[in-house]
Amino acid sequence: MDDMKFTRTRLKYFIATVSLLAAMQQHVFADGFPVRPKKFVINPSISYFVATRAWDSARVNHPFPQNGKFTALTMTLFAEYGISRRWYFVATLPYTTNTFTQTGFKSVNSGLTDLETGLRYYLANINYKHYIMLQGTVITPLYTNPNLGYGLTGAELKLSLAGSGHLFGLPSYYSLEDGVRQYFGSNGPIQDRYSGTYGITLDKQFKNQVSLSLGGIYSVSNFKTFNNVNPTTNKDFAFNQVSLSYGHSFSREFSVFVGAGTFINGRNTGDGSNVSFGIVIKTF
Amino acid sequence: MFDRLKNNNSRSSFRVTGFLLMLSLLCLQKASAQEKNNGDISTEVVAHDKDAIFSGLPYFTFSVNNPTGKDQTGTISYIVTTEKGEKVADKVQTVKISQNSNENYDFHLPELKTGFYKINFMINVSDYDDTTRRAFGIRPQEIRATTAKPADFDQFWQNTKAELAKVTPNFKITPVSKKNTDNREVYQFQMQSLDNYTVRGYLTIPRTKNKNRKFSVLLGLPGYQVSVDPMLGLDNDLAIITLDVRGQGNSRDGIDTRRDEYISYRVEDKDKYVMRGVIMDCVRCIDFIYSRPNLVHDNILVTGGSMGGYLALAVAGVDKRVNLCSAQNPILCDIRDLAGATDWPYSAFKKYVATQPGLTMDKVMSNLDYYDAKNFAPNITCPTLIGIGLLDPFAPPTDEYETFNEIPAKKHIMVFKNLAHEINQKYKDYEGRWMRDTFALF
Question: What are the phi and psi torsion angles at B380 (to 5°)?
């Protein structure tokens, strides 16, 4: 009789086990995660950068001469599209207004800058938590004004690792990226562009997130001259930047984020800070 | 209260898991994963492999904490047996555990053949006696079935499916609005299955404004004599189906056995054994999924535990429309090998034979060869995940691994060395990520 009772209770096995929760990666504000096939991620943003100082070629920090001030107001449209489970189309379209002022001098340049279009491939995963991606990007200048950028076509190959886990009982995520970019043409620089992001959700509904990022560019070119008037056209430079971002999800489809960042060191580059605001629209 | 499935959200899933854990602890009579406590003395067993799966010599450490103010003298020992209780190794060691001290005793076991073993660690000292039960495996990837599947196994199931195909399904689906939640709509459905038997189940679908949206499907298959409820949860990407197979829950129109008799119902005839219809009920449910235009027909996960795990393997074996298979602690794996290794379900078959004049266990075993999970396994071509507990009293790890090894498809097994007939949240999380990745539900 006891055996029968034993069987009665022990075999009450419940029916299915899948965690019936949405995947965390659907909610994070970080690159490097897969995109659902036939779905878009659209991310318009606006940022304002201001620099009144610069690092010279000896990494010495000093103010721009004659009360110089460089600002850049940039609107960027970033989009991802899931072509298939493993292939994603990515594009970035920026429009910028660069302003440099000095005592008795002002220079303003506006326009579309470098269009970036690329394909991202989902190479592999580790335990379905950590994703490894490879992205190839073509950089196409959409301007003839030499003050908006190099005006050179370029190509980039980027490897990324992104994943999610838990910290202090709250879901967290990270993203590590490193890309090598070559601009073709006269003195076209070769650049290493890297970034790391660590984010944490502040609630278990994934509504609020904060993230900390560290990134930078190391650019090498035979053209060593530092352009005091427009740092964006420098070719041989390096900098590191740290930024903090807060995001709020109104729904799985619609989120907003605000961020602020500042340069922490550099060479042949402006020393500035930026603030940004953006929205993220995901279709499901 | 345990007859009712409650899985409205992840929190309730935890509750069910916790309940299973509690049952396990009771069932194993102190074969728990926790430290033993009797007064202030406690012990702990550590297997020097995270899953207690060894490719070489097994190695354990037995730790004793003696925080009392008295030296403890006596013995610690271990005994290793096969899953069927045959002793293969033992050792006794005299010990003196000083007051207020902690002692670790390393045990390097002798070389053992491929397979799974039970090991009991005993402590008998001045003020404390206890036994800790564990299990471990030796190169389980080498375990192979010792009996072949019947030569006409595949033909048997082809014929059975052909028989099912002749039954008009007559799918009927009815909204159950009172069970709707903020994010899901609930429907009850019924259909005609093999022998024109009526089976019923629930379908829950995320609410959406997009009338063209299609959902991937989780088909949850039931445990032994479990009545299903609608499965809800916070997932907005999955349609979830729970099915009452014949003789269970709301599908007892023609078969309504006593609980312990269900497993052996009509086992004397392989063409009438209850599982023949049960497996076809699951296949018919795949037909139902295919009949629904708002479901993605090539994103079907079948999942279940215990009998549900068995059914997941069986359905994946007979129906190639299954895209993912997840089986937790599947029962009825190498049924012939269960004798001596488990009590139930072998005992249920023996009991049934005893009540049927002229019926022999040989005949029952021959019939059950057509229903053995290990015989479905070679036909599984979809990615498959299996979870097992090394202390499982109903689904011995040897037979589970043997079945796993027979699967030719991409597969993964998760071993829970200190669990019995259960899996834990780690499995659930992995299963969810695996399913989402495979179905591209990023």
Answer: -80, 120
| Buried/exposed code over B30-45 (b: 16+ C-beta within 10 A; e: otherwise) | ebbbeebeeeebbbbb
Which residue has tokens 């022999």? B360
What are B360-415's pLDDT values in tens digits?
999 999 999 999 999 999 999 999 999 999 999 999 999 999 999 999 999 999 99
Quick one: tokens of B73?
Answer: 């003298």
Nearest CA to CA, how far is B3 from chain A (Å)? 7
- Over residues B321-343, the pLDDT tens digits come to 999 999 999 999 999 999 999 88
Q: If DSSP states are collapsed to H, E and C, what string results for chain A?
A: CHHHHHHHHHCCCCCCCCCCCCCHHHCCCCCCCCCCECCEEEEEEEEEEEEEEEECCCCCEEECHHHCEEEEEEEEEEEEEECCCCEEEEEEEEEEEEEEEECCEEEEEEEECEEEEEEEEEEEEECCCEEEEEEEEEEEECCCCHHHCCCCCEEEEEEEEEEEEEECCEEEEEEEEEEEEEECCCCCCEEEEEEEEEEEECCCCCCEEEEEEEEEEEEECCCCCCCCCCHHHCCCEEEEEEEEEEEEECCCCEEEEEEEEEEEEEECEEEEEEEEEEEEEECC
Structure tokens of B275?
């599982």
Chain B positions in Cβ-Cβ contact with residue A26 (cut-off 8 Å): 442
- One DSSP character per residue, B242-272 reads EEE-TTSTT--SS----GGGGGGTTTTSTTT
Predicted TM-score (pTM) of the model is 0.88
A contacts of B312 (beta carbons < 8 Å): none
- Nearest-by-Cβ selection for B27 from A6, A17, A19: A6
CB atoms near residue A169 (< 10 Å) = 6
Cβ–Cβ contacts within 10 Å for residue B430, how many?
22
Tell which residue, B78, B82, B148, B79, has the closest CA to residue B115. Answer: B82
Question: A267 to each of A60, B34, B196, how far by Cα in Å?
Answer: 8, 58, 80
Q: Which residue has the tokens 């293969």?
A: B88
In a mutational test of the A interface, the residue from B433, B434, B438, B439 whose CB has the highest number of chain A CBs within 10 Å is B433
Nearest to A129 among B232, B394, B433 (CB): B433
